[in-house]
# Entry
Amino acid sequence: MTGGIEPVLFARARQLVAESTGFREDAISGESIERALRAELSRGRTPGDLIAELQRPDSEFSQSVVRATLVGETYFFRHPEHFRFLAREAAPAVLRGHPRRIRGWSAGCATGEEAYSLAACMLACASPGVVVEVLGTDLHEGSLDTARRAIYGSWSRRDSGPHLFPLYRPFGERQVIVIESVRSVTTFMAANLMAPLSGIVAPFDFILCRNVLTYFTPSARDAAIANIVRSLAPGGYLFLGTVEVDRPPVGVVRVGPPELQAFHRPLHPEAPTLPMPRAPSRTGLSAIPAVALTPVPLPPRRSPTELHLEALRRIEEGDEYRATAQLEDLVRQCPEYLPGLLELALLRERGGSRAAAYPLMRAVHARAARLPPDQIVEGPEALPARFYKASAEAYLNQQGAAE
# Structure
């Protein structure tokens, strides 16, 4: 991969990208890094010069290396189910509070199609007199420049993203330009999801962060989600990609169908009511007389859900090694237990072992496809079979596109 480039230089560049973006190592394009390094070396700069500059993450060259690895795949009204839910459920709920303005954030907006789609949706829903504001953020300045121009070709307009709300008009023979009413309420700025967004621009009533976090390491993903939720206004709604989280983030609750991956921050959050799983109680054993000959009964065999909850607790404690072992045991004992298969697949994916995650996702898809779509599958969270089928399809399609 690094032919002709000193390994130390390439390694430092890759480390810089990982630290700046939170991306997993296998999600960082080595070819993109190579091209950026070769471009500078061809100008007569030495490897030593470049390594020294890479020690300063805010240097122009360091930023150019990071930007070279960022690839945004987006188009208008991608995942239309999110915009339909926002228009039918989320926006009316927020507007019932009679706000003077509503605000949206497209986090990781790439070239801006998602931010403009969000703005068009919010404008269509806003009550008379309500001010609409939308912010799009991304790390890549080149992508933001494209977003600000607001001129797009056919790649941004696809059948899978139907034209749900007024958004653009023809511009020339083959292009379109975002209409003025949508452009006027949408702004763009550079921001990193690994850092909290300034309180000057937050909070937001609606946040879209989709198909971004799947590239992050587990710790980076958790940090980014915490930053995003922190910017969500009480009563606001968050929309994530299909396979980016497997349970509601802390501080929000799931709304709508599970496969929608839509979450709500309650206006008046209540204390958690779900108890943590505990070991079988031994209360009363000390009361058994010392001379008793009756054997103490063995605790009943634990259900797949109880075993799954124990593995989840290990994950929350940061002990993914033992969590993986527990989930592997669970899948061997209960091969039809869909939540365990999906959990293990996601854990493998987050750990960078895509080769191990892929067959597990195929098993999830095959087993879920055999069930009625609305059949509830018991697990830590009761979800219909269609959730598991949709999650597996999204992952498998994504990997197929990458190949």
About this structure: The radius of gyration is 24 Å. Confidence is low (pLDDT under 50) at residues 271-299.
